[in-house]
Amino acid sequence: MKPVTYQEIKQSDAVRTYIKKADESLCAIGYTEHAFAHVTRVAENAAYILRTLGFSDRTVELAQIAGYLHDIGNIINRVDHAMSGANMAFRILDNMGMEPGEIATVIAAIGNHDEGTGFPVNAVTAALIIADKSDVRRTRVRNRDVATFDIHDRVNYAVESSEITISEDKRAVILTLSIDTEICAVMDYFEIFLNRMLLCRKAAEFLGLNFRLIVNGTKLL
User: Fold this and answer.
1) CATH number at residue 185
2) Distance CA 130, CA 51 (A)
3) Which of 99, 106, 186, 196 is the most exposed, fewest CB within 10 Å of its CB?
4) What pLDDT band is residue 190 in, cutting at 50, 70 and 90?
C-alpha cells in the first residue's frame, strides 16, 4: 500500500474546496482567517517541531497532513469543528487508501486540537496543538475598521510578529510574540488565549518540553 503524501492532500480538489468553504463560513460569522495561509503555516510548524525533535519522516508528514486538514470541520459548524473535522478527514483519507493506523493518528490529532475538549494523545496531536494555537498574527484579521474590532480582532491585529521555535538544547518550545501595546494590552492576550496557552503547555510536556511564552522580550511563561 503506497502511503498517502502531504502533497497529495494539498493537491486534492475536494480538500481545497472544504478548506475554502469552511473559511467562507467563518468569514460569515466574523472569525479570523482559517484558509490556506493558516492551515499551511500550522502544517509546516507542526512538522518543524517533530522534525527538530528527531521524529521519523513519516510521523513528520502525518503532522503536516493533520495540520492541513485540522479546520475542515468548520464547514459544518464552528461548534465541535474538531470532531466533525476528524470524521471528514477519516472519510477523505480512507478513500485515498491511507493505512488505518495512520488514519487513526491523524484523526486523533484533528479531534483533539481544540482547547475546549482537546488533549495531546500522541506526538502528532501535541505538535498540531502548539502549531495551531501559536498562529496569532495581524494578517489573520479580516475586519479593517479598527473602530469596530472585538477583542479577538484587536489581539490578533496587535501581534506584529509571532514565531515558534525549539530551544537549542531541545528542552523547550518557545512562542515569541511582538505586540503593539498601543492597540492591545498584554493582559488582553491572556484574557482570550489563556486556555490555549495551558493546552500548549500540556502538549509541550507530552513531548518532553517546557512551554515558554516571550512577549516583547519579556518571558511570561
Assistant:
1) 1.10.3210
2) 14
3) 99
4) confident
